[in-house]
Amino acid sequence: xxxxxxxxxRLVFPAWLTALLLAIVPVWIAWPIGQMYFVRGPGVLVxxxxxxxxxxxxxxxxxxxxxxxxxxxxxxxxxxxxxLWMIKTTILAVAxxxxxxxxxxxxxxxxxxxxxxxxxxxxxHALSEIRTKELILKDIAELHHAVxxxxxxxxxxxxxxxxxxxxxxxxxxRNTSAAFWFTLLIPLGLGLLAEKLFxxxxxxSDAGLIVLLGIYSIxxxxxxxxxxxxxxxxxxxxxxxxxxxxxxxxxxxxxxxDSRGRKPFRALLWKEFQFQQVNLLIAGLLLVSHLIVIIxxxxxxxxxxxxxxxxMIWESWPILWLAMPLLIGGAAIAEERKLGTLESFLCLPVxxxx
Length: 354
Fold this sequence. Notes:
- By secondary structure, the chain is mainly α.
- It contains 15 helices and no strands.
- Helix 1 (3-30) runs parallel beside helix 4, helix 2 packs antiparallel against helix 7 and helix 4 (81-118) packs antiparallel against helix 6 (133-173).
């Protein structure tokens, strides 16, 4: 096997393994959740972990190169850009497709298992207190078809959007945190737009979602390919976004009032906040969006009762907060590695515990 292919496989393998576990395990743990939910699809507790898994996998190909500082070396290889692009995208596509197949197979097996349970006399008797026997049998007959349909639509479009989004966001921003949030929020926004535009038309909602996400994914992939073939080893030079610093008078006052021993600690603390400034900015925007989601859900409660897929997306918005500890914890070391300051950081005359 070619050394470049082996390197690429090792690059995406940890993210692929994580995505595979998130595609298989949740459906066996989170579905069903009690008798009232036996005849429904897996829902957000299954598809949200899958979406996070394929998102991390989609970011792994170029994200690992950027975080490890090997992107410049990749561009300097005596290999054509087209071949590099073909190898990276092909391996990434195969990895995402395998995770998507694992989701569909796992959901199908789990649905068949639940159908066997529902066909027993004891479960039909337990559910008959809530719904009539005819409705229960109808739900059982439609369950497997609904699960396969949702797996193909939600799972397939999530994997497709993560594939294209992970490519163009990493190449454009050269920042894993920014790439993560843009790859996550843009497909979510397009999904909500499709539900709002076509949700009231029977049979058109899924087609609208496929069209919007399909156009986004194809456009993102083609732009990323064109950009990679001519990209240079330069970062964005349009300026730096940074927290406001203290005024000169405050610095002079600090020299007079602070003891000399506290200055290194304050400098280290401020440096860490500067590393996290992108995550803190995104957290503020996420807080604003979360408040908007709460207001919309309050005002449009009747609409969400009639449109299950839109309700699933809006109700899953708080799950986005679960990504913040991952990004904040990763940036603490990843930024040091990216800027090449990890070695000098470990050589500072400060105790490791501090």
